[in-house]
Design a protein that fits this description.
This protein has about 110 residues and is of the alpha+beta class. Helices cover about 25% and strands about 25% of the residues. Keywords: ATP-binding, Cytoplasm, Ligase, Nucleotide-binding, Purine biosynthesis.
Amino acid sequence: MATILVHVMPKPEILDPQGKAVGAALPRLGFDGIAQVRQGKRFELTVDGEVTDEVLANVRKAAETLLSNPVIEDVVQVKVVREGGCGCGGNGGGKGHRPAPENGAKDLLG
């Protein structure tokens, strides 16, 4: 099994009221210095077997037709996190489920 992440974001020309609401709330809560917020969607798809080009093509097609609304959203990323699991680095012990940081990024959630 492997996990594939799909990230979907509103198209740049589309208003993002949720992102604007979050952006307006941040300074009120003491989180200064954030210029803009855009809110999107993230899907974690666990697939059986090896991730082949055909599997990735099927996931991309699903992302473009079902997981996103192509009129107002773009599929910005489809990537395999890790063969054999989600990539969270956990052992299934119930301590949360999120992928490990990549490319030297800091995991700000702990």
